[in-house]
Write a structure and sequence with these properties.
The structure is a single chain. The protein is mainly α. Helices cover 42% and strands 9% of the residues. It has helices at residues 12-20, 26-40, 55-60, 82-89; strands spanning 6-9, 73-76. Strands 1-2 form a two-stranded parallel ribbon. The relative contact order is 0.23.
Length: 91
């Protein structure tokens, strides 16, 4: 099922770091592509099973939407290379 979403950085410093990357930086290009994909389809990419989401994310980014309001939001929490991702997500 394709569902568009709003994409936000969950931390101002993270967004500043992203914006400071040079346009030709492959990391920035990859993130820009991911943002574009998520705006078109919130379920693009690999869905991390809820049981594997690090507790620090759940504690730090616990969010609640106003009553009767439903909006799909794709949140950028961090970015890192595959090796660090696998370590963080315990893959």
């Amino acid at each position: 099922m394709i569902k568009p979403s709003k994409v936000v950085f969950m931390d101002d410093k993270l967004e500043e770091n992203f914006n400071s990357l040079k346009e030709e930086d492959p990391i920035k290009k990859g993130i820009v592509r991911a943002i574009k994909d998520l705006r078109q389809n919130a379920f693009s990419g690999i869905q991390v099973p809820k049981r594997l989401i690090p507790k620090e994310y759940l504690q730090k980014y616990d969010t609640v939407t106003p009553e009767n309001e439903v909006e799909l939001i794709s949140a950028i929490l961090e970015w890192f290379n595959h090796k660090d991702y696998e370590r963080k997500m315990k893959y």
